[in-house]
Amino acid sequence: MTASPPLLEVRELTVHHGQLRALDQVSLTVGAGEVYAMIGANGAGKTTLLRAISGLKAPTSGSILLDGADLRALRAEKRATAGIVMVPEGRRLFPSLTVEENLQVGAAYARPGPWNIDRVYELFGWMPQRRKQLAAQLSGGEQQSVAIGRALVANPRLLLLDELSLGLAPVIVTRIYDTLPGLLASGVTVLLVEQDVSQARRVASRVHCLLEGRTTLQGEPGQLTAAGIESAYFGLDAAPGAPA
Amino acid sequence: MTWVNAIIQGILLGGLYALFACGLSLMFGVMKVINLAHGDLAILAGYLAVGVIAVTHIPTVWSFLIVVPLFAALGYLAQRTLIQASLNRGVLTTLLVTFGLSVVIENALQQFTSANSRTLGIGSLISKSLHLGSQITIAYLDLVIFGVAVVVLLGLQYFLSSSRQGRLIRAVADDREAAQLAGADYRHVFGIAAAIAFATVALAGIAYGMYTSFTPTSGTTALLLLFAFEAVVIGGLGSLWGTLVGGILLGVVQQLGAQIGSNDQILAGQLLFLLILLIRPQGITTSRRTA
Amino acid sequence: MSAPAVTAADVRVTRSRRSPLWPALGAVVVIAVLAYLPYLVYAGTTSLLVNFFILLIMASMWNLLAGYAGLVSVGQQAFIGMGSYLVLIVALHGTDPFIGLPVAALGCAVLGLIVWWLLSRLRSGYFAIATWVIASICYLVVIRFASLGGGTGEPLPGLPAISNTLLNAYTYWVALAVAVIVLISLYAILRGRLGLVLTAVRDDETGARSVGAQVSRAQLLVFVLAAAGCGAAGGLEIISQPFVQPTAAFSVQWTAEMIFACLIGGIGTIEGPILGTIVFFALQQWLASYGTWYFIVLGAVAIAVAIWAPRGLWGLVSERLHIRLFPVGYWVWPAGQAAGPGWARLRRPRPDAAARR
Prior knowledge:
The structure holds three protein chains of three kinds. Chain A contains nine helices and ten strands. Chain A is α/β, with parallel strands linked by helices. In chain A, strand 4 (61-66) and strand 5 (69-70) form a beta hairpin. The longest helix of chain A is centred in the middle third of the chain and has 13 residues, at 140-152. The radius of gyration of chain A is 18 Å and the shape is globular. Chain B is mainly α. Helix content of chain B is 74%, strand content 3%. Chain B has a two-stranded antiparallel sheet. In chain B, a hairpin with a 3-residue loop joins strand 1 (129-132) and strand 2. In chain B, helix 1 crosses helix 10. The longest helix of chain B has 30 residues, at 2-31. The model of chain B has no long low-confidence stretch (mean pLDDT 89). Chain C has a domain at 41-251. In chain C, 65% of the residues lie in helices and 3% in strands. Chain C has helices at 21-36, 43-68, 77-92, 97-119, 124-142, 164-191, 193-203, 205-210, 215-240, 246-249, 253-265, 271-287, 292-308, 312-321; strands at residues 11-14, 154-155, 243-244, 331-334. Chain B binds chain C through residues 28, 32-34, 36, 82, 85-86, 89, 91-93, 95-97, 99-104, 106-108, 110-111, 220, 223, 225-226, 229-230, 233, 263, 266-267, 270-271, 273-274, 277-278, 281, and chain C through 66, 70, 72, 74, 118-119, 121-122, 124-126, 128-130, 132-133, 136-137, 140-141, 143-144, 252, 256, 259, 263, 267, 291-293, 295-296, 298-300, 302-303, 306-307, 310.
């Protein structure tokens, strides 16, 4: 166990949407080089967690630390240049911009690092021929790749992936997740949100389940049983699930 | 052949309208702000030019070198302070605040300048006219203004499509949050867009001051805001070429209306606006998608 | 999730916090005093009050549009001008101009219907400027008629041939009556179903539609009512002058005054425009000698209020003191409890409350 702090630490995070408590005292740590998967049903609070980490949503209480430094004062755009880059739910490419322009915007405030637009074109071989097309004209899977590319060219230290699989065929999803090892090899840590539990278990080094804003399960995929995950996911027991 | 003359005058007038409109179009396209003080800002620029000329004694045509950058800075400041604060509150607030701004500007101008109408005297060089045949007269000034409008619109279009800052502006206009996630401070980007919008409105105001005389209340009485808005709607939002087309159409219809009756000039333009609203609300050049 | 703490049988629902008897009595007293005023004061004061009532009506209408239906109009001067001209037309045909008032209101209601049909698809900013364009068109069309005075204007014929003081008093009483009718109608409407729909639209239009609220119909009704109200105000204006001048009748200045009164008083309540009009007139009297500075200050105040005190003066007052002179909401009381809105208002959860579970 080294003395240096984990890359990301979330402590007792509580987030409200108006009067609705979306996250309730959620804590987790993500070490460098990990793939940390958040799972849970719709409305469990997973996207809220990512939005809080990326700076788009201010928490009610609790703290988020990057390399031990509290992010409270940093606006979303500053967190991006500090190394936390999110690929938001629904891709959210800039529809009136071309593929290449989307990547160029992603690179506008990039940190120094191994990733650039050409390397993204190498990663997704179909992209160079389509780079002058408007982002809105691409298919769902293609848009997802561009969205990931747009985040990568910023050279993130922590990549937040929100619901990659939404609206995509399983074959496409698998293909996209297969690029993950290449990302890790370049020094990117991944925190992802996924409704598809089997994909999450396949790629993650650790899994964290949320239900109605609370942690119900934490652990390595190999140590968790399918039944345990199921009950944590759906809240089948009255009491919270197995502690971390 | 006076009809041909009217059409030509209308086209040239359309350039001036397009110059007025592009600032409005930019602010609405990027920030969803309708600046009700738009016309008054143009007049303010005109008065500023009058003041600058009085102090520095530079020729009128070069007054824009001082006034336009000043206005750009003013635009950035106004956006980062007042307009952003009202944007955070909601659409109603931005309309109310810009309306209040309009009242303040008009009355401040009335307070601090005389009520006499002013004009920006133009040098003898461009007060001449071109004569084509016996019926067609084209003032050099009108040609120059039209040329400036085309250059500005071309330049702006190029800036938005090919420069890094232009891309950022378009990105923020598309999706503010996604742009934040890419590291862009949208407040700063809004400020740049406002600076550009204010710069074009200053240019339009100076051109207007050369074209005709103005008073402190010309912003509302001369219906400058309305014409700019009509040009944007007729041409179609989201396209600077649309703004030029809209301005030209408005100018042509107005001039043709003036041929019918001297009181019908403005009314003709208003009716064209209504017609477009009824049958093609997204404007001439825009496809239905963005309406 | 535990069972709900309270069932329908446990609560009492009222329309106001205290008994509505006292404010109602107070209103009757105020109206009686106002009605007696012409016997007490000079004609100058009653003329001023006529202008006050005119602005009060217009401000209430603008408040209805913006504060309840979410429609921002900077073109209500279209209906004010048309209202004046409709009364003029009636008078030119030999009828008593006072009869022209309901004609003006009705005529402007029809005009409002047409304008709404033209503009209803437009979103807020577009809608606002389009209303200004409509006002401009009305002006341009009206000045073409030489019989109506063309571009210079026309005096109002047909007023009763009585002494100036008496005419002044009649005008005053009619203006007071119209203002009272408008306010009472507003109160009745907003207390009912339309009021609920409008409040829902104001808060969240998409949400309102999704629960089946007839949003378009509600907005149409409001727009037509506001047109009628402004038409009546315009009719009162020409009667009180008694002439019409087109540039003044269709001036955007009317809109400026309406907006300021609503903004300062408070958008979204019935009391707001009343308070705002009072403040507006008080300021006008106080600062009249300062000329254009008055408008500069007014504009700056409006900007400040819009950003920092969006609920206006009345909003500040009613929030502190929990007063509603025109109660349109609902209060929920636990059964058996006489007074005290203890748990009637939902509170935001305090951050540390989350820690104690």
